[in-house]
Amino acid sequence: MKLTPKIETFVMHCGEMGSRWGFNRTIGQMVGLLVINPEPLTANDIADALKISRGNVSMGIKELQSWQLVRVHHIPGDRKEYYAPNGSIWDLANKVFEERRKREIDPTLSMLRDQILDEAHTEQERFAQQQMQQIHDLLETVTKWSAELQRLSPEQLQSLMKLGASVSKVIDLKDKLFKKA
Length: 181
Description:
74% of the residues lie in helices and 6% in strands. By secondary structure, it is mainly α. It folds into 2 domains: 5-85, Arc Repressor Mutant, subunit A, CATH 1.10.10.10; 89-180, no CATH class. It has a 3-stranded antiparallel β-sheet. Helix 1 (5-21) crosses helix 2, helix 2 crosses helix 4 and helix 5 (89-117) packs antiparallel against helix 6. The longest helix is centred in the middle third of the chain and has 29 residues, at 89-117. The protein starts with a helix and ends with a helix.
């Protein structure tokens, strides 16, 4: 499978972004390749397109399955396994957000709760606990907010995002009205 320059640029960029999304360069390239292909690909197709070993593809597919980003697709009469994205772009983004929450935010919240509940023995520890409480509260708020966003349909989410600065104007107006009252 030969990639056109346009597709290769996109796939390579997805690889560079992979580490920022929470996985390595090769897995990022695999996601990019699968997302822009109209048809599911075999492991050999992926290996040929990315010029990587079949074993590397196999490990990458397992990782992508653990993130729930790919699904196996079977073609009647063909014994090969084909791989395709597990949903729309919005579905994939939601899965990445959810997995990152599980892998990063939840353990941090758990550690913060333990440290906040543990008795402070010095003034320095009391101050540290206050700071940890603020971090905990911020992460809890962001987690609840992102969970609400994930419940929205892609159309609702797009509408919300288009509101942009209008939301802050409404909040400012509300604040002004309630200050006068």
